């Protein structure tokens, strides 16, 4: 499955109402570590059919960043059953990101 762009308008439907775990990447264009994590997140989206993967651009969706207390990017949140199950801040290798999902 491809990465979904998450906005205020579709957040509830994609993230909170999902019957699968959801990996959400908070990022920005100007963020170097975000550019390192982004292709890994894309890869995971293509490899894992059992999860939903979405990205939130903090510059465009600042309200969502505030709502979830995102102070540094990249921030990765894993939602299960509409609740935050895991959080990771900063660039991470693929193995660490996958571990968040287990």
Element layout with pairings:
Elements: E1 4-5, H1 11-16, E2 22-27, H2 32-47, E3 52-57, H3 62-67, E4 75-80, E5 83-89, H4 94-101
Parallel strand pairs: 1-3, 2-3
Antiparallel strand pairs: 2-4, 4-5
Task: Describe the protein's architecture and organization.
- The chain has 102 residues and is of the alpha/beta class.
- The protein has a single domain, classed as Glutaredoxin (3-Layer(aba) Sandwich).
- The chain has helices at 11-16, 32-47, 62-67, 94-101; strands at 4-5, 22-27, 52-57, 75-80, 83-89.
- The protein has a 5-stranded mixed sheet with strand order 1-3-2-4-5.
- The radius of gyration is 12 Å and the shape is globular.
- The mean pLDDT is 97.
Pick out its properties.
102 residues; alpha/beta; Glutaredoxin; 5-stranded mixed β-sheet; 4 helices; 26% strand
